[in-house]
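Researcher: Final request for today, and then I'll write up notes for the group meeting. The sequence and the SMILES for zinc ion follow.
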Amino acid sequence: MHKKVAHPNEIHNTTTILWHILQACKGGDDVIAHSCSPHNPEMGKGGNASMVKNRSPAREANRCRKVTQIRGQVYDITDFAESHPGGAQLLALAVGRDATILFESHHIRTEIVDRVLKTLPKVDDIDKLFPDEEFPAPLDSPVYRKIQQRVRDEILAPLERTKGRAATGRGGCLLDMAAVVAFFFTSLSLYIACPSIMTGIILGLAGYWSGTGLQHTANHGGLCRSSYWNQFWGWFGSDVVIGKSSLEWRYHHTVSHHSYCNDINRDQDVYTSFPLIRLDETQPWSWYHTFQPIYTPFIWPLLYLAAQIGDFVNIFIYKASPGVEYTGITPIEVALYVFGKIFHVSITLAIPVYLHGWAKIWAPFVVYSCFGSFVLCWFFIVSHNLDGLRPHQFSHTTRNDWGRWQIETSASWGNVFWSFLSGGLNYQIEHHLFPGVAHNLYPLMQPIIKQECVNEGIQYNGFDGYFGIVPITFKMFCFLKKMSLNPSKTK
Ligand SMILES: [Zn+2]
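Model: Predicted protein-zinc ion complex:
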């Protein structure tokens, strides 16, 4: 169960230039494939701090049980999988690692889940299973606790009374969900009936919208009240609509990126884009980085291709994303990946080719995959890649406070209109503080978070309004430019 994760450096010799291009095709929220700096063996150990280290007879004897650790206590969660309110797939992320950050950041009603935690069997009779979590935990952050309490009192409680919304913050996205699904089926029908560059672009937009407004919130467990429907829409919106494995996504995005946002050693989204894209001053510089502000947008369209290769390699060969072992993976999840891939290829390629012939389909298909990838990468990269959002630029206080860390490594942009069109991902600060709630609550949270940032002297990064995407994109290119400079000449 706990075999060693193949470190990305170990496979480096067999990688190719193309492989690096594929890995680097995304510098934002959802980097996919294996990569690591060949020059720095410390890179790419994301999630290792929270994973099982040593084998022992006692641990071997317990390997058939699913265990997790929260705040230094090991729990047996084998029998809890089916009754976990958030669903078995989200609970699986906690298996075999210290899940303190996942647990505290994805449950807004801490006292309720604490009561449930007390009912789980404790594992005290074996030696230490897990290394201690080195990263700050959410509930140790005074500002996070304060914001969380205000969100509960000022948003969730009134909505529960007036609209009957869940006190957990989950669900209530029916309208948003229906719009995404309707747009997808409309654009898919157009694409199949009349394949062209234009219908390829429209289907690509539907893929982008599904990736943000459907799969992202569902795979975080916030789209619907029902965990069954979250799992279904998470799979459909990702595996079927955009051809990206939701299984792989949950480990790399939720375990690695969300827990350790922008950390050079733990957040895959920073180190897997290297060596092609340099997003941190601690990464070695090469001559071609000079041109990264120009070539980066041309790499974004390759995300789709990278996902196809990366998912297969991660799931079937390494059983891990870089640094994050799939310790809780189940045969059902793997079967859903395979079935989703067959479904996806059938509707986007096989059926259209059967109806119209390859000559008429290849160009619309390429446009679909590239255009959706381009928009996804663009809207994700601006969220965490601006000057001032790198951890080494933070104060000692921020580096030791999970809430401050999440706020200062993220940037929000736009308004409610853009929230509808981006599944709330434009409210990235709000999303990183409360990843498990419905995305249409983020606009309501923003004033509270901004106010507390002013009170606490925390930098709230972002640009409001309909055209907020323009200045934040400009600022992102300025950051790419800054990272493109030769450090030996700028010192
Ligand atoms: Zn997320």
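Model: The chain is about 55% helix and 5% strand. The chain has two domains: 1-33+140-491, 50-138.
Researcher: Thanks, that's everything.
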